[in-house]
Amino acid sequence: MVAGAAVAAAALAGRYGILAWHAFKARPSIPRIRRFYEGGFQTSMTRREAALILGVRERVVAEKVKEAHRRVMVANHPDAGGSHYLASKINEAKEMLLGKSNNSGSAF
């Protein structure tokens, strides 16, 4: 009797596993690559654009902004072959999110 119950439980577990595997394989594939903002820069920097440039949310603590700024700046610094224009936009985005912006815009 106990052996029969064990066989039935194993069969149900196997069936459940097979159904779960088929459901997993049938789900649509979602690309795991992070998508970046594809638009150009606006004439006047907004909080939304600054957040998109740094890859953070609009309302975020200062430490996260500084960490994101450093990460993006390391990848785009002019001394490492990056663009001066992008570096100025990255710095402007940091100033905007930290509230230090005087709306003077970038140098470009």
Describe the structure.
This protein has helices spanning 2-26, 47-54, 62-76, 84-98. By secondary structure, the protein is mostly helical. Helix 2 (47-54) packs across helix 4 (84-98) and helix 3 (62-76) packs antiparallel against helix 4 (84-98). The mean pLDDT is 85.
Question: Descriptors for this entry?
Answer:
mainly alpha; 4 helices; 0% strand; 108 residues; 58% helix
In short:
With 108 residues, this protein is mainly alpha-helical.
Rg for CA atoms: 25 Å
State the helical fraction.
55-70%
Structural class: mainly alpha
Helices and strands, in N-to-C order? HHHH
Envelope shape: elongated
Query: Mean pLDDT, rounded to whole units?
Result: 85
Strand content: under 5%
Number of helical regions: 4
Q: Which sheet architecture does the biggest sheet show? A: none
Give the CA-CA distance, first to last residue: 82 Å
List the helices and strands and how they pair.
Layout: H1 2-26, H2 47-54, H3 62-76, H4 84-98
